[in-house]
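Here's a chain:
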Amino acid sequence: MRKKRALVNIVRRGLMLVLSSPSGAGKTTIARALLQQDSNLRNSVSVTTRPKRYSEKHGKDYLFVDSKQFVAMRDEEDFLEHVQVFGNYYGTPKEFVFKQLEEGFDVIFDIDWQGTQQIAQLARNDLVTVFILPPSMQILHERLKNRGEDDEVIINERMRNAAAEISHWPEYDYVIVNSDFNDSLAKITTILEAERLKRTRQVGLAEFINQLRQEK
C-alpha cells in the first residue's frame, strides 16, 4: 500500500503594492475598493502633517501629526519612505509594513513617485508598482473639482504638477489608463493575483518540490 504523503504548506511572503498617479486620477478610490474585496490586503496608513479633510478619519486614512512629531519620527528612522508634497510631509511607518510581509499579508500603498523610489532602494524584490493615468487632463481637472475637497488655487497647483508626476511612468512595472473604474479595478486585481504566484514569493515551494521528487 502506498504511503500517504504529508501535506506541505506552501507559504508566501507578502508583497508591497504601490499605486501612484497624479492627484485626482483615481488611485485612492481603487485602493479602497481593493481593500474591501481582498482580505489578504493591508492598508499602509501614512503619517502626514497635512490638515485633515472633512471626509478623512485619523488612523484610517492617515495618521495626522504636527511637524515636530514628524521630524522626531524621521530622525529615529521610523519611516520606510518620506517625502514633502505641497508643503506637507508624508511618511510610511516601517515596522508595520515589514511585519505584515513576514506574516504573508500584502500591503497596499497610495503614494507618489518619490516615495516609490525610496522603497525601491530598500526592498525592490518585495515591490510591485502600478502607475494610474487619467484619460485626459481635462477629465483630471473635472475630477479634482467634483470631489469638492480643494479650492481653485490648490486645484490649479495640482494640475501644474500633474505633468511632472506623469513623466515618471516609465519607472513603474505596470501602467493603467483609468477610463473606467471597474475595468481598472479588474486589471489591478489581475496584476495582484499574478504577482502573488511568482515563484520567488512562494517560500515553501522548494520543500514541496523535493517531497514530490521523493515520492514513489
